[in-house]
């Protein structure tokens, strides 16, 4: 989700300015409707929705004008694929509270991937995480609520901070248990906050310690989501387009 889709109109579809175009993606369990913006008379832009599973869906380009019925202009198939980022996000989501798995992720730290790879990992995995359908009651600290803050353990927050994943850290902070994870020591006595300072991740440390820390600039152009029952509405601030997602 959140990548740009360009729609090229044929000459007969290039119509007056008061016609509004939108795309409808119909999957097996959910449907997305996205508004578009016109780049020029022959081109539209919109944002790909984050889907709940990997499948081929039907996408319809529709045109609407006040006082007239909506028309389907064209139809095409669109494939949502399972990539490494999707797999990684699913693995990490299932690791919350699993000490054996979280200790295993520390092997990544020893290899110290290049900064460009870390940036790519951060962007793709955080985006995939945003679009995962997390189970009800999912918590950054895992399902075992009997553990208290004095119990030393690894958390997903330690993982994100150790690798310097700014976007993923921001996402986890917004989830249940995210703030609580900041004060938890691992078996070496490090909290996510002390790890950020030790590694010299100044932006990350600021994000974790400021009460009213702003959303990272690199993250702020993405979609802002509002949920309402079986529906959610996203506003993509970068392109100023909207997306309605509903369970079918």
Overall mean pLDDT: 86
Order of the strands making up the biggest sheet: 7-6-2-3-10-9-8
Terminal-residue CA separation: 19 Å
**Overall form:** elongated
Give a short account of the largest sheet: 7 strands, antiparallel
Please compute the radius of gyration using only Cα atoms: 21 Å
Helical proportion?
A: 25-40%
Return the string of H and E elements: EEEEEEEHHHHHHHHEEE
Q: Low-confidence spans: pLDDT under 50, at least 5 residues?
A: none
H/I helix tally: 8
Strand content: 25-35%
Counted up, domains total 2
Question: What structural category characterises the helix and strand content?
Answer: alpha+beta
- Tally of DSSP β-strands: 10
Organism: Eudromia elegans (Elegant crested-tinamou)
Protein name: AKP13 protein
InterPro entries: Ankyrin_rpt-contain_sf (IPR036770), Rho_GEF (IPR051632)
GO molecular function: MAP-kinase scaffold activity
Quick summary of this structure?
It contains 8 helices and 10 strands. With 248 residues, the protein is α+β, with helices and mostly antiparallel strands.
């Amino acid at each position: 989700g959140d990548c740009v889709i360009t729609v090229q109109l044929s000459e007969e579809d290039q119509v007056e300015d008061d016609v509004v175009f939108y795309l409808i993606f119909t999957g097996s369990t959910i449907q997305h409707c996205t508004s578009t913006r016109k780049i020029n008379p022959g081109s539209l832009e919109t944002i790909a929705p984050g889907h709940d599973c990997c499948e081929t869906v039907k996408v319809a380009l529709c045109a609407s004008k006040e006082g007239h019925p909506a028309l389907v202009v064209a139809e095409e198939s669109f494939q949502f694929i399972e990539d490494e980022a999707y797999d990684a996000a699913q693995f990490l989501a299932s690791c919350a509270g699993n000490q054996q798995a979280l200790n295993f992720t520390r092997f990544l730290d020893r290899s110290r991937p290049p900064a460009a790879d870390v940036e790519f990992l951060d962007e793709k995995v955080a985006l995939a995480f945003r679009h995962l359908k997390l189970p009800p009651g999912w918590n950054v600290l895992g399902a075992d609520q009997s553990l208290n803050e004095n119990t030393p353990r690894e958390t997903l927050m330690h993982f994100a901070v150790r690798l310097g994943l700014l976007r993923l850290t921001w996402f986890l902070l917004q989830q249940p248990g995210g703030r609580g994870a900041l004060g938890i020591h691992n078996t070496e006595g490090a909290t996510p906050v002390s790890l950020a300072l030790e590694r010299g991740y100044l932006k990350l440390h600021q994000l974790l310690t400021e009460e009213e820390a702003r959303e990272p600039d690199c993250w702020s152009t993405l979609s802002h989501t509002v949920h309402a029952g079986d529906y959610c509405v996203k506003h993509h601030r970068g392109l100023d387009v909207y997306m309605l997602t509903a369970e079918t």
